[in-house]
Write a structure and sequence with these properties.
130 residues; mainly alpha; 6 helices
Length: 130
């Protein structure tokens, strides 16, 4: 995936001060870095495209109402079922590539990224007007 291999530095996207709190800016930067580092498998820090695509699908199909803003989901259970299918695909892929133990640990770390994405989204929503 070309968009994952070439990136724009965060300081160009989020020019300080963009948040009411400098500590929020630092935490946001930390969350985004952790999100972007997860799909890297090798010491050379190359991305595993399949991992990146699958975790993005898990994040995309998050049934959390607050991601939709003030529009409630019509069928959150259906969204959650799709998310579970992508999560299972990710789990099986990680186990096949990394082995059972490391795959399970990496999967757990990937699921933690959902909370990081949510936290970064909440901080982004408090962005100062330009």
């Amino acid at each position: 995936m070309l968009f994952l291999k070439k990136h724009i530095p965060l300081v160009q996207v989020y020019v300080s001060p963009w948040s009411p709190s400098f500590s929020d800016e630092q935490r946001h930067r930390h969350c985004l870095r952790r999100l972007c580092e997860w799909p890297r498998l090798s010491p050379e820090r190359t991305y595993d495209d399949r991992m990146a695509i699958l975790i993005l699908a898990v994040l995309t199909f998050s049934p959390c109402d607050s991601w939709a803003g003030d529009r409630p989901l019509e069928d959150g259970a259906a969204v959650e079922r799709v998310q579970q299918k992508y999560a299972l695909l990710l789990y099986k892929y990680l186990r096949s590539v990394l082995g059972p133990e490391e795959g399970r640990a990496r999967f757990g770390a990937g699921l933690e990224r959902i909370a990081l994405a949510r936290e970064a989204y909440d901080m982004h929503s408090k962005m100062l007007p330009f």
